[in-house]
Amino acid sequence: MAAAPALALAGVGVDRADVPVVRDVTLDVAPGAVTVVLGANGAGKTTLMDGIAGLARPTTGSIRLDGAPIERLPPFKRARAGLGYVEQARTAFRTLTVEQNLLVARSGSGDLGTVYRLFPELERRRHLHAGHLSGGEQQMAVLGRALVSDPKVVLIDEMSLGLAPKVVHRLMGTVAELAAMGIAVLLIEQFANLALEIGSRAYVLRKGRVVHSGPCAELRGAEDRLHELYFGGRLADAAARLAREAPGREASRGASAEPPEAGSRTP
User: Fold this and answer.
1) Which residues in the chain land under pLDDT 50?
2) Within 13 A of 175's CA, how many CA atoms are on the CB side?
């Protein structure tokens, strides 16, 4: 019998400035696994995460954390209930030391030792202000801050943004370790194939709605299928359309060019 989901959404809708962005989203996040949410820019992924975390108020549907409804709770109570959130921008407290960043978030059985085991460079820099860390180290501190809050579920939104590929691979390995520790992870990631490699189940959003759900293995390396899910058309069809339109654009550009004046020299 499958374990009950650590996080369950049913028919969730979220607005931004009274404009519907996320519509009727239903998904489950299993304990001890990475669940991946994919989609093009503007698909509603971050708005969905903000709705789960309480930074944007859901307008419809239910959100259950470990079986208990949380959709009406303020963000701090969701965090106390076991929901960690690693937001899209690196949100380390720059004027606090690394260790202070971790201590302000520690809750329950949250352990700094676990963070330092995952990120030994943070232990070496624990007395350094977070503002002096590299971008990758700041992201490690933010992940560590979520971990010491003793979460049941961690939401991670585009942690790779602006980071070197080597660092991104390192962080992906850490996300997989979080799942191995029994934590449920809901991951939004721009590098789809990296996320699909560590994930077990994937959801794809388009225009705020779920257009696909299934095992990650179904989408690994399937570029054409991902393009179809993201944009509603096949990658090969899009390439063929661009190829057909290119000659017309070149002709139009040539026709609009002014002829050189008499006696002028061309470079």
Assistant:
1) 258-267
2) 32
